[in-house]
Specification:
CATH superfamily of the largest domain: ATPase, nucleotide binding domain
Strand order of the largest sheet: 6-9-8-7-10-11
Subcellular location: Cytoplasm
Shape: globular
Keywords: ATP-binding, Coenzyme A biosynthesis, Cytoplasm, Kinase, Metal-binding, Nucleotide-binding, Potassium, Transferase
Helix content: 25-40%
Order of helices and strands: EEEHEHEEHEEEHHEHEH
Number of domains: 2
CATH class of the largest domain: Alpha Beta
Subunit structure: Homodimer.
Protein name: Type III pantothenate kinase
CATH topology of the largest domain: Nucleotidyltransferase, domain 5
Oligomer: single chain
Function: Catalyzes the phosphorylation of pantothenate (Pan), the first step in CoA biosynthesis.
Distance between the termini: 18 Å
């Protein structure tokens, strides 16, 4: 079995995959046995993370060391990366495969400074290239809303970074005295009849419209392309986008699995 861990600034997503060949998978969730989402806490120790992960695996009857043969990590949080490395070595007895400079991914990073590209964006590109080819755009609804662009030649050629839904709402609530936090759900109409519905409409339909505008401008430069939605809020916002063709919530984990397969022997 393989543990794939994607550390974001807000949440960490963990996937447990079987030992089948990821290059034979037709979807991102093929071979995915279970998955968990936890808050990203920079202060957790390796032992605390091991307790959390061991508990998740224990519910499945899976033993931490005996049945898990590999760990793959993408992380945009350096402190968490170091903690996960230490946990993996101590509790799994293996060296993790971490997306970082020097790792083999199978996707060329054709931007001005490849070292500054986030590991999750590389994983998205690897997973998208394997499942859909190119040109492809992956729209990731996370702490930030990002667009990752893969060319017809399978190169990561850049993208877009915009504020995410939740941090935009946090800024709205913190800077406006009369507005309060609301549950982020689909409103009844675009024209809100209450303040709560107005905020919900602005968040969901507003971000869907922003993504559509960005994707259309990308397509003007790139040409016809496949557009995939992913990330924690993709199931909420992507259905209202006119340009997102498919939602693949596990594409980052699938990319991690593919990278692990390319580097496990090393």
């Amino acid at each position: 079995m393989l543990i794939a861990i994607d550390v974001g600034n807000t949440n960490t997503v963990i996937g447990l995959y079987d030992s089948s060949d990821p290059t034979e998978a037709a979807t991102a969730d093929e071979g995915l046995l279970d998955h968990w989402r936890i808050s990203t806490d920079h202060d957790r120790t390796p032992d605390e993370l091991a307790v959390l992960l061991g508990g998740f695996l224990g519910f499945r009857g899976t033993h931490l060391r005996d049945e898990v043969q590999g760990v793959a990590i993408s992380s945009g949080v350096p402190r968490s990366t170091a903690t996960l490395r230490a946990m993996t070595k101590r509790y799994f007895g293996v060296e993790p495969v971490v997306i970082e400079p020097g790792i083999r991914t199978g996707v060329a990073v054709a931007v001005d400074n490849p070292r500054e590209v986030g590991a999750d964006r590389i994983a998205n590109s690897v997973g998208a290239w394997h499942l859909f080819g190119g040109p492809t755009v992956v729209v990731d609804f996370g702490t930030a809303t990002t667009c990752d662009v893969i060319s017809a030649r399978g190169e990561y050629i850049g993208g877009v970074i915009a504020p995410g839904v939740n941090i935009s709402l946090d800024a709205l609530f913190s800077r406006t005295a009369a507005l309060r936090a609301v549950e982020l759900v689909e409103p009844r109409n675009v024209i809100g009849r209450t303040t709560v519905e107005c905020i919900q409409s602005g968040a969901i339909f507003g971000f869907a419209g922003m993504v559509d505008g960005l994707v259309r401008r990308i397509a003007d430069e790139l040409g016809d392309c496949k557009v995939i939605g992913t990330g924690g809020l993709s199931s909420l916002v992507a259905p209202y986008s006119a340009t997102i063709e498919q939602i693949e919530p596990w594409i980052t984990l699938h990319g991690l699995r593919l990278v692990h397969a390319k580097n496990a022997e090393r």
